[in-house]
Amino acid sequence: MTAPELILASASPRRRELLARLDVQPARVAPADIDETPRKGELPRPYVQRMAREKALSVASGGGAVQADEGFVLAGDTVVAAGRRILPKAEDEATARECLALLSGRRHRVFSAIALAAPDGSVRERMSETIVRFKVLSQQEIDAYIVGGEWQGKAGGYAIQGHAEALIAWIQGSHSGVVGLPLFETRALLKAAGFVIG
Hints:
The chain has 6 helices and 7 strands; from the N terminus they run E-H-E-H-E-E-H-E-E-H-E-H-H. 32% of the residues lie in helices and 24% in strands. Strands 1, 2, 3, 4, 5, 6 and 7 form a 7-stranded mixed beta sheet that branches. This is dTTP/UTP pyrophosphatase.
């Protein structure tokens, strides 16, 4: 019997790099095309869970040019939350500066959800929750980080795998989850689905 394919419902190179740490290479990449707007009053945890599930189901049902019986679809979503507030992906400098100023010197949470849609239509889900605290950031530090450009398209305006890591006082939880794919949870999910993981 042929082993099932794994289809990654994400265009993120970071997620592909993280999967490679598990010695897993997706057979195909098929980014999901869904509305990622939070619902009115939606909190970070249920929002990120909904996003991962909807992405997986969208691609599994053909939303990513993939037929449901072609293999397992793995999707993920990561959200940076300040209290009950979902921080945006920084698409411009003003948003990145606002996020960094808000996160300066305080704790925030990063929720990283994953969903694995099976050919039979079932969906397995897992999530990591990580607490991160930045040092108090000076204006010079924020300016330098903005100039580097790592914030572009990043949830909360920073990438922990880059220069921002030197500005983080401590972290409790999953480092890979903050990057975009919690490896412990992903490994457990894939093994439960029958994938051979080293």
